[in-house]
Amino acid sequence: MFEIIRYSSEHADEWNVFVAASKNGTFLFDRRYMDYHSDRFSDHSLMVYYEGRLYGLLPANEEGDCWASHRGLTYGGLIMDAKVTAALTVTFFRELNEYLHQQGFRRVLYKCIPWIYHQLAAEEDLYAISQTCDARLAERDLGTVIIQRNAIRWERVRRRALKRAQDAGIMVERSDDLAAFWKVLEDNLALKYDSKPVHTLEEMTLLKSRFPENIVLYLAKRDGEVLSGILLYVTAQVARAQYSSATPQGKQLGAIDITYDRIINQDYRHLPYFEFGTSALDHTNHINESLVFQKEGFGGRTFCWDRYEWEIA
Question: What number of CA atoms fall less than 13 Å from residue 276's CA on the CB side?
Fold first, then answer.
């Protein structure tokens, strides 16, 4: 019933057009974003056709006998348009398993696209993998989101930090100076977690040049000195804090707080959701309590990022 083909570069335009018109896709699925790190993954993305029409996309890579929702993306799953139906999707996943079996895969790791990114309801895939694949929950990560129409007042500690930043004369501006922010980010991650950003400065500079309206940087400064920054990933539904960091002085003066105030309460108030990202420790299902506490102080509350797995008979 379905025709399933493996993605190749000659299909890039068709792929990107479908993503742009889909009900649950974002710019992360555009091949100009996905392919920036193509050398790190063995891509095995799929394009699905029904009666000659493109029905859906599955960004994925292969790891031995495992077919996985693309590891280089924050979220994944079946990208769909408004014409997708529940019954057909159930049938599709049955045929997908047959395809994967024929390709030599024995296991699937599947990341779903969180509901806050859906422009229309788009959980046909979750029903289908439960009904046809005997999928089980493999990992549940903790995310934090503000639903803007029901925004909660900031906690006192965050309001006090905002006042401190305002009294200190800190100014927030939208900026293209990724290098200045990356220095703050790298220093902070090295000191606090002995780690590095997922993206290099060169990679993020390339991605920002390709998606200037989707990747947006805010810097907080005093007397020309960068004290903090927040790098946003902006989609139709969500402004997401992809990276945020501050210098030691910036933390003392509330530079992050005044930057979030500008972003959440002013510039992106019109979007339905503001998302802070996840707070589990290295996919251990143990939460970083201090990080969650900070996000909840801004009015964020919990939603879940789920990943599923199943075996292919």
Answer: 26
pLDDT at 265: 97
Tokens linked to 166: 């305002």
Find residue 67's DSSP bridge partners.
62, 108
* Whole-angstrom distance, CA of residue 58 vs CA of residue 47: 7
In the block, residue with structure tokens 């909840």: 296
pLDDT at 282 over 90: no
Q: What is the pLDDT of residue 281?
A: 65
pLDDT confidence tier of residue 192, bands split at 50, 70 and 90: confident
- Asked if the model's pLDDT at residue 286 lies above 90, the reply is no
